[in-house]
TrEMBL record:
The keyword Ligase applies. One of its GO terms (cellular component) is mitochondrial matrix. The gene is MARS2. It comes from the Eukaryota. GO terms for biological process: methionyl-tRNA aminoacylation. Residues 444-542 form the Methionyl-tRNA synthetase anticodon-binding domain. Belongs to the class-I aminoacyl-tRNA synthetase family. This is Methionine--tRNA ligase, mitochondrial. Its EC number is 6.1.1.10. It catalyses: tRNA(Met) + L-methionine + ATP = L-methionyl-tRNA(Met) + AMP + diphosphate. GO terms for molecular function: ATP binding; methionine-tRNA ligase activity. It is found in: Mitochondrion matrix. It comes from Macaca mulatta (Rhesus macaque). InterPro entries: Anticodon_Met, Met-tRNA_synth, Met-tRNA_synth_2, Methionyl/Leucyl_tRNA_Synth, MetRS_core, Rossmann-like_a/b/a_fold, tRNAsynth_Ia_anticodon-bd.
Amino acid sequence: MLGKSVLRLLGRTGASRLSLLEDFAPRYYSSGSLSARDDARDARAYFTTPIFYVNAAPHIGHLYSALLADALSRHRRLRGPSTAATRFSTGTDEHGLKIQQAAATAGLAPTELCDRVSKHFQQLFQEAGISCTDFIRTTEARHRVAVQHFWGVLKSRGLLYKGVYEGWYCASDECFLPEAKVTRQLGPLGDSFPVSLESGHPVSWTKEENYIFRLSQFREPLQRWLRGNPQAITPEPFHHVVLQWLDEELPDLSVSRRSSHLHWGIPVPGDDSQTIYVWLDALVNYLTVIGYPNAEFKSWWPATSHIIGKDILKFHAIYWPAFLLGAGMSPPQRIYVHSHWTVCGQKMSKSLGNVVDPRTCLNRYTVDGFRYFLLRQGVPNWDCDYYDEKVVKLLNSELADALGGLLNRCTAKRINPSETYPAFCTTCFPSEPGLVGPSVRAQAEDYALVSSVATLPKQVADHYDNFQIYKALEAVSSCVRQTNGFVQRHAPWKLKWESPVDAPWLGTVLHVALECLRVFGTLLQPVTPSLADKLLSRLGVSASERNLGELYFLPRFYGHPCPFEGRRLGPETGLLFPRLDPSRTWLVKAHRT
């Protein structure tokens, strides 16, 4: 309840006089930053997507959220055995007035609608290679237990009281709105009606007795959390937006609805006349997955990274941390925020008929191809545009031609008849630039390539840590272009193995190019797992040699033995990524639920 919404308090208790900062989270705030965790806990990482509402079939925005979380968790696992303790959850949000209304419109029981649409999400994520360790549905019994326990904790701490709420409510967005966030829109007959200023969805004036959460008491703790943790919300502009919100009044929040109005949800413990607010219900899923309320959840919380869309930032960056602090817990470690996808410059909308069906795209562009496109083109800071020609152009250029062409060149029998990792010649490519001699063939640009690829894994890791996967892929693509330039510059197809002058340099050119390909394949695993597997298998890289901890680039250049030198390449796997036909592009729209 915000702005001019009216609260009449019916039962304030003495608990409202508790000192929020010390009583609710003294461990978190005693030093002004996240408290130190033991080594075992530091090794854990827990990634989450939002749980997706089941009122409509999934679109590419849902898949994008899941792919971001999938790539982050896969990259984390690649860091080695010490980071093997990684969890990744996604799922479906199945309660609330919107679901209740959608089911009634479809002539279905709410459970039937939820089962049907949740299955669509599960199928999509399975087809897209989403490597989640848990798919949660809020209709599960374990979740009901977690939500009702969490409610009980908030109540026992004096943070819930009964009051009368009177104000605007948006059923489509499942949220309360202040007067300043409501405008009027003209209908087809010229009459006006109130809508949410941000989403454009209709709102209605509501007055009812509900349970109220003392959100107003958490304004300063939330400000202190964010100011003391500048990376708590990434990218930075969203961190700034939340601090701006907190500069304004933070009224208490209604966290239940009358059961007679909203029956499809979790009942308030001990009061069947009330149903728990759908957002409080939904947010607790992040705890349900890690075993809450059992003690095991503490080994995973708060080593948590939420990946969310910008439209649900307020729920995750204000309401959720406030609920957690109220329950005596720390806020999540990171909140990664991304923007939305438009289609040919327009917002995706069922009414416009331009909602893109992700499953059709996976079939059209291949799973790895569409994963690569969304993560390569998606920039979290601002909305990104989708159209078919852009997908085809990118995939043909970067996967089929640049990366696939490089692999084909370096493994072709005409150039590499022994189908091995050739030897590296240190006299042809000495580790010290500028040396002159009859055998020295390396040029300044070649040393620049070695430097670029040697630093690439660290650069990519930094981009992942900063939630800039698109920049990680840009960096890989840039190095692929550099490597192609290296091969083109030295034209190994013009060199002869039979020549004692050419052979050492020919082997060195191929060795360097194959080493570059090994780095690219390893770094692409979180984004294009099947394509990367195909590439690394062709190079003869075993499963145990594919972690980032095993990624020692061009060791012979640095005077160390190379375990791949002289090793046979893996079996021929065909084209790494077949070119797509640009004449066969079309806009694929979503199937009906």
